[in-house]
Design brief:
Elements lengths: L5 E2 H8 L2 E3 L3 E2 L1 E3 L9 E4 L12 H6 L4 E4 L12 E3 L3 H15 L3 E6 L4 H13 L4 E3 L9 H7 L7 E5 L7 H9 L3 E4 L13 H8 L11 E5 L5 H10 L4 E6 L6 E8 L4 E7 L2 E7 L4 H16 L4 H7 L11 E7 L2 E8 L5 H13 L8 E5 L9 H6 L2 H6 L4 E5 L4 H6 L5 E5 L2 H9 L7 E5 L7 H8 L20
Parallel strand pairs: 4-5, 5-6, 6-7, 8-10, 8-11, 9-10, 11-12, 12-13, 13-14, 18-22, 19-20, 19-22, 20-21
Antiparallel strand pairs: 1-3, 2-7, 14-15, 15-16, 17-18
Function: Involved in cell wall formation. Catalyzes the final step in the synthesis of UDP-N-acetylmuramoyl-pentapeptide, the precursor of murein.
Subcellular location: Cytoplasm
Protein name: UDP-N-acetylmuramoyl-tripeptide--D-alanyl-D-alanine ligase
Length: 481
């Protein structure tokens, strides 16, 4: 039986709006492409779309009701609606009511790198200990956070939210909606550096998450990060007394003792506030070892079972576009594709190169990187792109293909034997890489979301004679976002 998330009366009370019809909603949606029957459809407005245009479509697809701030002309006269003054504010009010009524342990995650992966790992770990609600994909902005709160089931035991930003002040507004019992800052690195004067500015923006932690709550910090002291000082200024830490540092509360990183997994030995745990992470890379330590620290802060959380990592799987691996069948054999195309910055690039460097090759195979622009790096962009040469060489990568205006700096800096080719855009690069790949290769595809490296992934998938790989799904957001 489908659980009721919102009744017409509860939603009207939460938003201060007016409901027509005696409807009940099992979910909340802002996108008719992913809307499920029984959802309340919220007609948001964005820079390139107006959800009111799709309100009638939402009802036709089985929406329980539509939240609007005007009545579209094509809406049936007897349509079930929730009329509010502004749909963005209505969504935020619905999210606030969802947060106010929950008894769940509420957890929030931010950081320059690893937010979504860590959020998914924490959702996976806690989901085996109680009903767990979490942000879908990277729903970490001004509409994603209230939407995730509005979707929070009343009987959840845990709720995990991701908070993102690319300008100062954004996280402060989001965390005041979430009001977490514990918050994790994964690390501070040069992501979105074009919008800040320094990494210290990024650290200060991430530290805004401290402003919404409830009284008596906990902040979890990476003890190995160079900005730890700055973040810990900010926590004390917010009168947060519970500062938990993770990392290799001897003073870390969740401390790494040893890690053996393999091509497809890592074996880890750590101590969690005096309790020794050994576990396997079913995802490769040193960065996943660090993510796991942060998850264990948050598990401890949530008063959940740390041992069970550690055991859960053995069945952890990557999210779409974040390191998903698959074999592509050619006429004379296979090559391996590592789809890490969702996003990129210098730190995550280096982590991905390390994973590629550990990958097992077939006979005569090569390690190939197909890379798109890292965006929002500002005046530092050329140096940071060219600076990828060192981690590329350290990983033993054989060929590098690049696309985009920013990646031209890396192509120019690469030693001639490593240059696979450069293209103006990802579609052209996809053709270039697809024409060069051969049996036994391992191919990494990575770049910022704006670089659209999914086109390179699609070009490689199109080579698959097994025909088992469909088009990658799009991200939710409005309707025509």
């Amino acid at each position: 039986m489908t659980e009721t998330l919102w009744t017409a009366q509860d939603a009207a009370k939460a938003t201060g709006g007016t409901a027509t019809g005696d409807w009940t909603a099992a979910g909340v949606s802002i996108d008719t492409r992913t809307l499920e029957a029984g959802d309340l459809f919220v007609a948001l407005r964005g820079p390139s779309f107006d959800g009111h245009r799709f309100a009638a479509d939402a009802l036709a697809k089985g929406a329980a009701a539509v939240m609007t701030d005007q009545l579209p002309d094509d809406l049936p006269a007897d349509a079930a609606t929730l009329r509010v003054g502004d749909t963005q504010q209505g969504l935020e009010a619905l999210g606030a009511a969802g947060r106010a009524r929950t008894r769940a342990k509420v957890l929030a995650i931010t950081g320059s790198v690893g937010k979504t992966g860590t959020k998914e790992a924490l959702r996976h770990a806690l989901g085996q200990q109680g009903k767990t609600h979490a942000s879908v994909a990277s729903f970490n902005n001004h509409w994603g956070v209230p939407l995730s709160l509005a979707r929070l089931p009343q009987n959840a035991a845990f709720a995990v939210f991701e908070l993102g930003m690319n300008h100062p002040g954004e996280i402060a507004g989001l965390v005041r909606q979430v009001r977490p019992h514990a918050a994790l800052i994964t690390t501070i690195a040069p992501a979105h550096l074009g919008n800040f004067e320094s990494e210290e500015g990024i650290a200060d923006a991430k530290a805004e998450i401290l402003e919404g932690i409830v009284d008596g709550g906990t902040v979890v910090l990476n003890r190995d990060n160079q900005h730890f002291d700055r973040l810990a000082h900010a926590a004390r200024e917010q009168e947060i007394s519970h500062i938990a830490t993770f990392g290799e540092h001897p003073e870390a509360g969740v401390r790494l003792l040893d890690a053996d990183c393999h091509a497809h997994a890592s074996d880890v030995h750590a101590v969690v506030h005096g309790l020794e745990v050994s576990f396997r992470i079913a995802l490769p890379g040193r960065h996943w070892v660090v993510n796991a330590l942060g998850v264990l620290a948050m598990t401890h802060a949530a008063d959940a079972d740390v041992t069970r959380a550690a055991e859960s990592f053995a069945s952890l799987a990557p999210a779409a576009g974040r390191g998903v691996r698959r074999e592509i069948q050619l006429a004379d054999g296979t090559f391996e594709l590592i789809d890490d195309s969702y996003n990129a910055n210098p730190t995550s690039m280096a982590a991905a190169f390390d994973v590629l460097g550990r990958a097992a090759l077939g006979a005569q195979g090569r390690r190939i990187a197909a890379l798109g622009d890292m965006l929002e790096l500002g005046l530092h962009s050329a140096d940071m792109h060219a600076g990828l040469v060192q981690p590329i060489q350290q990983a033993g990568i054989d060929r590098v293909f690049t696309c985009g205006a920013e990646m031209a700096a890396l192509n120019a800096a690469l030693p001639e034997p490593l240059r696979g080719g450069h293209a103006a855009d990802s579609a052209t690069l996809g053709e270039l890489v697809a024409g060069s790949v051969q049996t036994g290769d391992v191919v990494l595809v990575k770049g910022s979301a704006g670089a659209r490296m999914g086109k390179v992934v699609a070009a490689l998938d199109a080579l698959d004679r097994a025909g088992s790989h469909g088009a990658r799904s799009g991200q939710e957001g409005g309707h025509a976002a």
